[in-house]
Amino acid sequence: MAVILETYSLSKSYFKKSALAGIDLKLESGRILGLMGPNGSGKTTFLKILAGLLKQSAGAYTVAGETDSNRIKGLVSFLPDRNTLYPWMTAADAIAFYADFFEDFDRAKANDMLSFMKLEPTHRVKAMSKGMIEKLNLTLAFSRHAKLFLLDEPLGGVDPVARERIVSTIIKTWTEDSAIIISTHLVNDVEQIFNDVAFIDEGKLILSGDAEALRTERGKSIDKLYLDIFEDR
Question: Taking the complete model, does pTM exceed 0.70, yes or no?
Answer without folding.
Answer: yes
